[in-house]
Structure prediction request, 898 residues.
Amino acid sequence: MKITPISGFPEYLPAERIVEQHFLDIIRETFELHGFPSIETRAVEPVDRLLGKGGDADKEIYGVTRLAGEETTDAELGLHFDLTVPFARYVLENAGHLAFPFRRHQVQKVWRGERPQEGRYREFTQADIDVVDVGELAPHFEAEIPLVMAEVFAKLPIGRMVIQVNNRKIPEGFYLGIGVTDVIGTLRIVDKLDKIGPAKVADLLVESGLTREQADRCLALAAIRTEDLSFVERVRELGVEHPTLDEGLEALTRVIDTGMANAPGALVADLRIARGLDYYTGTVYETQLVGHESWGSFCSGGRYDSLASDGRTTYPGVGISIGVSRLLGLLLGHKMLSASRSTPACVLVAVNDEDSRPTSTRVATALRARGIPCEVAPKPAKFGKQIRYAERRGMPYVWFPGAGEPADGSATGPDQVKDIRSGEQVDADASVWTPPAEDLHPQILRAEA
Amino acid sequence: MKITPISGFPEYLPAERIVEQHFLDIIRETFELHGFPSIETRAVEPVDRLLGKGGDADKEIYGVTRLAGEETTDAELGLHFDLTVPFARYVLENAGHLAFPFRRHQVQKVWRGERPQEGRYREFTQADIDVVDVGELAPHFEAEIPLVMAEVFAKLPIGRMVIQVNNRKIPEGFYLGIGVTDVIGTLRIVDKLDKIGPAKVADLLVESGLTREQADRCLALAAIRTEDLSFVERVRELGVEHPTLDEGLEALTRVIDTGMANAPGALVADLRIARGLDYYTGTVYETQLVGHESWGSFCSGGRYDSLASDGRTTYPGVGISIGVSRLLGLLLGHKMLSASRSTPACVLVAVNDEDSRPTSTRVATALRARGIPCEVAPKPAKFGKQIRYAERRGMPYVWFPGAGEPADGSATGPDQVKDIRSGEQVDADASVWTPPAEDLHPQILRAEA
Prediction:
């Protein structure tokens, strides 16, 4: 049977997977430091639930059916295409067992049948945090959520990430203040700025019924981007008044102010950000890797007044999601990151001959008992060959049982350990020897940009 | 839309997920200590690859298709039902990039359309380790692989697990030695011992063409189970001679001998074990939780002479797989395990009033900087209410900024931290205070059996 990769379903070699694990470990650790417990939801949801959400996501759903299934009464199932729809369902299903405001993180694969391209996959991993409450959600969460992500980005071995924040009420109030009533339609056109530029956006706005002057003022609003609170003054200079605009400016001020206090430079007010999805109602987030703005947003989200509702109770929420596979795929694809070795093992314990394998195994057991990952050589080959085995996998050390000079009157010598990068070989005792901290686990190496 | 669970697709509440994460962390940490890097394979494989393997697995496969898919030339895809078939494909696909002998671990969800029942799911997590080599595989790996699992079980908060080991060559040589030529057919019948008992197995063997004496001798072999090497003598006492039997006894001796030296009591020779799957050719493993033998095997595997083959090169391997969801589902379902809290947060930082939230956030940042997971209270409610918020989630500590007695001449007091279990409240400094190690992360609690 011929073996060919399946387009859109990337797989990593062990060294690449080590980079991915490093990312996922930092993400989880940071989420947990901020008190977000993990949940996982099943990979499948009823298709009618998937179809009801996420705009035109219906085109992207993978259906799932038992191949040998006799006729059943089971609901038609599909693979989830994000983690928000399953989370909303989870909240409704388990509301009686959850304590609100409920915060959770969720790191799972999702599937979309989109056309694969660079950094766009059909199977990919997302890492989400959300806070939901019953009835009302305190506004401070809108500042807290992006700060968790800012901490993740500061810990990841990548360049500077900037989280761009806006509040949907700002363009909404502004548009209404200049007499534009089709807020959603106007937002949709302004959202194309990155793709088609301001001149074409202005033309489209005029085509949609705005005057040239209204169009220019929409573009002026969208051009405002500040790292501090001066966006308020910049908006005021445009001379538009509307209570919704005031609400939006006040809300965004709170978020940026908290950002400046806790993570200077991580958050910017960017009044161009709208997010395509219609269910965001307040703060919205996008994220760019500085110097790679054309790669688009790696981390997006926002506030929704109704994340979930069972008809009686409404659950407002705020959340943000990192596209882990997208980010990693681009960084690995552009050789911007690599791992120092393709195995967790730090030490290869050499085997003198097959009969003495138990001796080598005892050394390995002693090292592992102190948290040092290691492997016993597969074959009692010549030492040069055993060293090459370690070298091929990037393991920094080879351990030679009994290789040292025997003390006077002793039949066997002490063990020795060789740093195969420097060639240095010294006497060592498996019950006390410890590698330098930076060698214990694989290092993630960042290529110079 | 009505929300109902989907049978066979279990989901955990946050506290249960914390138990699962603890299991998965120990599994990964142990696999890595033994030098097994992680890989993940895509969730889907071409259906014709899935159908070719794993016996009658075809009945269990979930097919995957794009719901809005126009006609495509894409291969028909299905969700993988184990991690061995995808791993074999991964080895063939990436052979040029892997260093052999290649070891890997893999912890992923798999899907089977079987009828759900207690401890049997349609979506579940497996944790596998395998070693594969090119052409030939050194026999010592057959002893190394179960010892990794024995270490996992020793670290998990569960009762004693016993890994039962056999070698397929023992029954094969024995059967041939007593003149029984349908080895597979006979193995299949003997494999029913647990379900139908020795009397019925003997009858079935006679029906299949064995003499009553042959049947009795097969049963005598299957009854042998020893924690040491005495199984060899017990087999010899049955007076059967065959070169394949000798090979099998020698191979099993090596495995049990290594087990006795490195993990006393973890491995037993159990000559009843056969494993249903036909591709195992040497050592085979099953695992029982002592006192819960009726729950069946939680961890099984064995050696296959041909894990994968591309027609020119054959890759023999040995592997073993823990059914994580099966094990957890039963332990949680029988209330044998729980988590001490439903959140990673160890501390709730109280908020005096909304204006002083930045003060509370600074405390949280200082605690997190030293690895202490915490959460800032969602509302500046009465302190009793904030304490109850922490209590409901099982967080052991609440932090009160500035709650202590001000020193002479000082306007504000020092912070205080309260252990809400004991009620003890003491002055504390967020830049140095550290909780006891056992409070830092949620504890996994084992109910008395």
